[in-house]
Amino acid sequence: MGIVDWQTLLPSASYLAILAGVATVVLWDYKWGKVLVFASIAAALAQFSVSPIERRMDRVTAASDIVWDFLDALPPSATVFTSSDNLSSSLAGIQLVETARPDVLVLVKQHMSDAKYTAARLDQHGGASNRPVLVGSFKGQAFESASETPQDAVIRALAASSQDGAVWFELGEGMVDRAVMPNLEPDFPAFRYVEKQPSDQADEVAERAIVHIENADRWAAGWSSNFLTQLGIWAVFKNNNAQAARYTAMAIKAEPGNAKALNNMAVILRAEGDFENAIKFANLAVKADSSYQRGWKTLANTAQMAGDSETFEKAQHALKSFER
């Protein structure tokens, strides 16, 4: 993800170099040893020449900058609910390796149903002394237990956490998060959860999401793109299609192959009656990811509304192939 980590990268490279040297000495006198050694060197050079990953990692600082800026700005004893590997692993790495901000509690939403995981995280970050309401709510009933739905568990966890301190919430792809949309205030790389009426600072947050693109590898660029896609969904929820289209366009610019953003742009354009461009973006979505069923459904529905029977049949054929 572009984070320079000398504690793992440099030792790993050194160990591999030593092992390669030992293997060369061992194999050299065997019948096919020299051939194997030279073939291995040729394969390594070939991989090096075609590798898409930026080799000058000191110039690829976007992911590190994003997480450190976010962590540094959090108030004491803040709680962060994450959903993506990008934010979850980055915060975990900084807290474990750098021992930074131990007061901040990070809970991965997908793991909240694991009572042992949640209990361990709470114990590691202050327990009842720092978060009495959240701890009390969890001890009274573990999240997603006793027939509690994931959506209700998220609502309960956020309500309890907000009474203990400031809360940030990373939107995911599912419908579970939609119930808390009215309480989300745009921030990057996660929204802030507020009980009062959220302020609309989405434009400023969107700019912060793309400011690091110049120093990003493709993974960090994808991270920013996914956030902007979620910001567009948030804007749709606020019934602001113009704002949604702007953020979704920014997501596509950050990562042209973002199938979800392309699909969402198609949906936005279809709502405005621009069927021609809606079909164009829906086609781009399924071209970017031919296994993206939602994209094919968007293409089929849009083509049907536009009276484009050829495109409709193509999309329907693709959807039927998923049923096999």
Secondary-structure element order, as H and E?
HHHEHEHHHHEEEHHHHHHH
Secondary structure category: mainly alpha
Q: Care to count the β-strands? A: 5
Oligomeric form of this entry? single chain
Global outline: globular
Q: State the distance separating the first and last CA atoms.
A: 37 Å
User: How many independent structural domains?
Assistant: 3
β content, as a range?
under 5%
The total count of helices amounts to: 15
**Considering DSSP H and I runs of 4 or more, what fraction of the residues is helical?**
55-70%
Mean pLDDT: 86
Short description:
With 324 residues, the protein is mainly alpha-helical.
List keywords for this structure.
single chain, 324 residues, mainly alpha, Serine Threonine Protein Phosphatase 5, Tetratricopeptide repeat, 3 domains, five-stranded mixed β-sheet, 15 helices, 5 strands, 61% helix, globular, disordered N terminus
